[in-house]
Amino acid sequence: MVIGVPKEIKNNENRVALTPAGVTELRKHGHTVYVQVNAGVSSGFEDAEYIAAGAQMLPTIEEVYGIAEMIMKVKEPIAQEYDLIKENQLLFTYFHFASSEELTRAMLAKGAVCLAYETVERPDRSLPLLVPMSEVAGRMAVQEGAKYLEKPLKGRGILLGGVPGVKPGNVLILGGGIVGTQAAKMAAGLGAHVTIMDVSLARLRYLSDIMPPNVQTMMSNEYNIREMIKVSDLIIGAVLIPGAKAPHLITRDMLKLMRAGTVLVDVAVDQGGCIETCHPTTHEDPTFIIDDVVHYCVANMPGAVPYTSTVALTNATLPYALQLANKGWQQACRDNMDLRLGLNVVEGKVLYQGVAEAFGLPLTDVNSVLTREAELA
Ligand SMILES: NC(=O)c1ccc[n+]([C@@H]2O[C@H](COP(=O)([O-])OP(=O)(O)OC[C@H]3O[C@@H](n4cnc5c(N)ncnc54)[C@H](O)[C@@H]3O)[C@@H](O)[C@H]2O)c1
């Protein structure tokens, strides 16, 4: 298959969909890989590394879209890319269709095959192409929180790990899923005193078994939250209710209970946030202060560490990309249910229920499309 990797052009997107290691793997299976000049530079991968791995470099985005059967990207195409997309071209990237009717209608009109990273799903209902970004954000939450606890950045002036003779800082984590677990590991590693709250007792039991002794678990409820925020230095919001807006576990009035210089990192801000006073911020201006409490609410935290994020993402996407390239999307989706669930928009039809419901569009059964493709083959 001919695979194309364009340079991302969405504002502040520094990741790239394929590393030189990924090029080597695809080449080993007999595929041809075209990479746009400078596509990997912001993630730390030079053109020379892609060439050494067997990629062919193309100077413009038009040439990459023009030649490729499968486009591998990170972010959804933006308006200036729509016209570059060809009928039947396979696009393997994050789309988040349900949040953009314009994008959905543009891809329907183009007749492209849109396989969305975010809806590829394992039989245990986990989302293997979203997990790596949650892992990055969870670990970063502690790094950023520790930084903003410094006095010049308006924090309490506390070193999370303390020093001999001085007690460590207290970290409260709301939600013990992927983000919360990774955050807890980092905070515990720094020597902080960590509390994870979740509504799932089974999850708390598991975390209690695997976490080091400086991590304790607590049931998440309003009473416990009100008690714990009085003594916490860093509070990390990491809850998720799939398909719903995050619940406001920390309300405006609760800020008064916190000590001045407490730092809030609301990782769940991309789902509306679990702290009422949070609103999305950017890496250029990541924080704001309300009632002397520092709020950090960057909606795309992994964007600040593009090298780590690119490698983490491509570690997860490459096995699927190989299946798509080796078998073609039709056979790969017939053989692999994970990938089949990633099909959102195919040749002018919506195949994903959430997208059809979001915009009142007709839903086509994915199996009927795959059967028809088999008959045509
Ligand atoms: N800002 C960013 O850059 C960024 C990056 C990655 C992920 N995220 C977001 O981080 C959030 C967490 O993602 P995840 O992958 O860890 O999800 P996850 O599903 O693995 O974990 C969510 C956890 O929240 C728990 N929960 C639900 N309601 C709760 C409540 N009332 N109190 C306490 N816990 C509750 C669930 O039981 C679950 O354990 C999501 O909103 C995700 O979109 C943001």
Automatic annotation (TrEMBL):
Keyword Oxidoreductase found: yes
Alanine dehydrogenase/pyridine nucleotide transhydrogenase N-terminal domain boundaries: 4-137
Pfam families: AlaDh_PNT_C (PF01262), AlaDh_PNT_N (PF05222)
Family matches, as InterPro entries: Ala_DH, Ala_DH/PNT_CS2, AlaDH/PNT_CS1, AlaDH/PNT_N, AlaDH/PNT_NAD(H)-bd, NAD(P)-bd_dom_sf
Domain Alanine dehydrogenase/pyridine nucleotide transhydrogenase NAD(H)-binding: 149-297
Binding site for substrate: R15, K75
Binding positions (NAD(+)): S134, D198, R203, S220, V239, L240, V267, A268, V269, D270, V298, A299, N300, M301
Reactions accelerated catalytically: L-alanine + NAD(+) + H2O = pyruvate + NH4(+) + NADH + H(+)
Recorded superkingdom: Bacteria
Molecular functions (GO terms): alanine dehydrogenase activity; nucleotide binding
GO cellular component: plasma membrane
Annotated EC: 1.4.1.1
Keyword terms of this UniProt record: NAD, Nucleotide-binding, Oxidoreductase
Family: Belongs to the AlaDH/PNT family.
Protein name, entry field: Alanine dehydrogenase
Source organism of the structure: Spirosoma oryzae
Taxonomic path: Bacteria, Pseudomonadati, Bacteroidota, Cytophagia, Cytophagales
